[in-house]
Amino acid sequence: MTETTVATTAEKKPPINWVTTILFSLTFLCAITVVPWYGFTHGFSAAAWIWFFVFLAANGFSITAGYHRLWAHRAYEAHWSVRLVFSIFGAMALQNSILIWATDHRRHHRFVDQNDGDPYSAKRGFWFSHIGWMLRYWKTGRNDFSNGKDLQADPIVMFQHRFYLPIVLATNIGLPLLMGWLAGDLWGVFLLAGVLRLVLNHHFTFFINSLAHIWGTQPYNDNNTARDNPVLAFLTYGEGYHNFHHIFDRDYRNAVRWWQWDPTKWLIATLAGIGLAGKLQRVPDVTIERARLAMQFKRAQAALEQGAQRPVPQLDTLRERLAQEYESFQATLAEWGKLRDQWYGAKRQQLAQRWEEASFRTHVREIVYRLRMQRRRMQLLTAQLQRQLQLQPA
Predict the structure, then answer these.
(1) What CA–CA distances, in Å, run from 12 to 126, 133, 136, 143, 256?
(2) What is the pTM of this model?
(3) Are residue 343 and residue 202 in the same domain, yes or no?
(4) Residue range 232-257, pLDDT digits in tens
(5) Same domain flag for 82 and 189
(6) Do residues 68 and 202 both lie within one domain?
């Protein structure tokens, strides 16, 4: 075996991280053996189930609203008391300190799907992106705080980072045992609110790194593997709308439709409503609709190119309709660009009056409505084209 081959093999299989390997293995085995055994033989009290759901939600929201949207993406600002709560229950989730988690995640977004830069690249397979990246000392998993200067300036972030292990032990062992003792169900509370809660919270979060890059739809962008998945959104407090998030990562929302499940968004909005959060970042509706329409045009064009290889009826008519829709799309975007430039120009000159602002917002709503109507027309056009392709043999 050559020296190059040895080096390559060593990089493929670096040393095992025994701390995380033993931790994940023991907690998982306990969750699938001891927890059900105890439930069948002793039963779990109501208090055990209550604390299980309370701690599961507290950990989940501390990761989604805290670690992810607040610290990793700066999608909003929060009062120190909110940041403190998120830092404590985020440590209880046992997914590393804020500083390490957020800097890793920023690298994931910067180098998404790049095996030599993304710490949990989905291109390296489900197992690697789900948990394998933490079980060995991979080069891409080394701590790099160069993109976290703002985090290092946050005293709560640094306090949690320095005292991470004591907080982890106090919240994962001390807190469940204390609640169990107070409830008169020491081991029941510990097994449900301690062990099972930890394992479920781990894997629900890990699904975003793995399944959310494999299973779902890509309505906004297909330049990376991120996908929207409502099932994962339900399990992860709204994080499953991952295709949207990867193109609009500064938005405090992951779900933008009223019917989509995103309780993290609702929590942040509630905190803002009572004065505990502010500067919520939102992507303009026009920008969102533009991304969705661009994807529809891309897929329709791909279908047309496929149809060009077969004798598809009405292909020329469908191509002409697509060209007309695209021309209308470009005209609407040009109108939006002109309107936006005029507005910013007026704001810079401090000439915009209230009636001008109202007129601007009305015009923006009209543009958004036109883009949405065009998106519906494109859905019909694409569906018609696909039907025609299915009718014709390849």
Answers:
(1) 16, 11, 10, 19, 40
(2) 0.84
(3) no
(4) 999 999 999 999 999 999 999 999 98
(5) yes
(6) yes
- pLDDT of 376 higher than 50: yes
Largest pairwise CA distance in the chain = 77
For residue 8, the one-letter residue type is: T
The verdict on residue 381 lying in a domain is yes
**Count of other CB atoms within 10 angstroms of residue 85:** 17
Q: Extract the tokens encoding 70.
A: 């607040």
CA distance 90 to 157: 11
- Examine the fold and report which residue of 193, 219, 245 is the final residue of a domain before the chain moves on: 219
Angle between helices 155-162 and 80-92 (to 10 degrees): 20
Q: Give domain status of residue 237, yes or no.
A: no
What tokens does 98 get? 């804020």
Q: How many angstroms separate the CA atoms of 334 and 325, rounded?
A: 14
For residues 21 and 135, state if they share a domain: yes
Whole domain around residue 120: which residue ranges? Answer: 9-219
Question: CA 262, CA 228: separation in Å to the nearest integer?
Answer: 12
How many angstroms separate the Cα of 364 from the Cα of each of 175, 232, 254, 266, 359?
51, 33, 22, 25, 9
| Structure token digits, residue 157 | 């972030």
Number of domains composing the chain: 2
Confidence of residue 9 (pLDDT cuts 50, 70, 90): very low
Q: Are residues 166 and 68 in the same domain?
A: yes
The answer to whether position 229 is within a domain reads: no
- pLDDT class for 295, splitting at 50, 70, 90? confident
Q: How many contiguous H segments (helices) and E segments (strands) does the chain have?
A: 20, 2
208 domain residue, yes or no: yes
Radius of gyration of the chain (CA): 25
Q: Which residues are bridge partners to 277 per DSSP? A: 78
